Amino acid sequence: MDNITAEIREWQKKQNAIILVHNYQPAEIQEIGDFRGDSLDLSRKAAQAEAEVIVFCGVRFMAETAKILSPRKTVLLPDIEAGCPLADMVTAKDIRERRKEYPGATVVTYINSSVEAKAESDYICTSSNALRLVNQIPEETVLFFPDQNLGDFIREKTSKKMVLWPGYCPTHMVFLPAELAALKKKYPRAILMVHPECRREIRNMADLVFSTGDMVKWVKKNNPGEVIVGTEIGMIHRLRRENPNITYIPGSDQASCPNMKKITPEKILRSLKELKPIITVPVGIAERAKLALERMLKY
User: Structure pTM?
Assistant: First the structure.
């Protein structure tokens, strides 16, 4: 254990803190974390955590989700500037205006969204439970925010009427058909796994379309020899950490989220020492958002 990690552990113990790390975080951050996971995994860990302090190594909407589910705990985001372009593509006002156009429809909002957007929603979903949730809700018309690609993935597989918002994840838009075709030709035995935030033309090329959590489970269960990974490049460290005997090939060397790379060990240590930056959520908004999140946690 290096010096800074040892110091982080010391301060973590002093502050009674838990460190939650998203799968897209840099390798050194993943090694520091107590738990690694996707949005759903970490939402549940945040809700179950007995620690008084939650250090969230991810982006702002994730830390806000942890605060909503654990309002009495201190939630820290080591770099307060770690945001999400996709989450910024829809506002609470946008959702209210779209509701007026489709009275009686249900609003399902991807967890990659602001707390204000969540507060305007009937349900929150993640990439791992979105299809299951949409298929089980009673309403036939679903207003889906903000990721159009995840919404399109659901639309392909459900009889519900999906009304999509034109948001997208910039990192998942970098995958190119020609580049993936070249990789499949170079590695003919490799399984191509992509995230549902990818465009339809990319998903259609894939052998499997999975959330990051489901990628981990599938690889562990099936032990393929080679995997082309069509999601943010930090995912490869998580996969390799748990299944090191498999060859992992990035679907694109450009698939790196700059916001996910903002947190460093030094920022984690400073956050633990100073107990900041603290994530706060207005009570009224938090209560409304929590209802939608609790509905999600049932699926």
Answer: 0.94
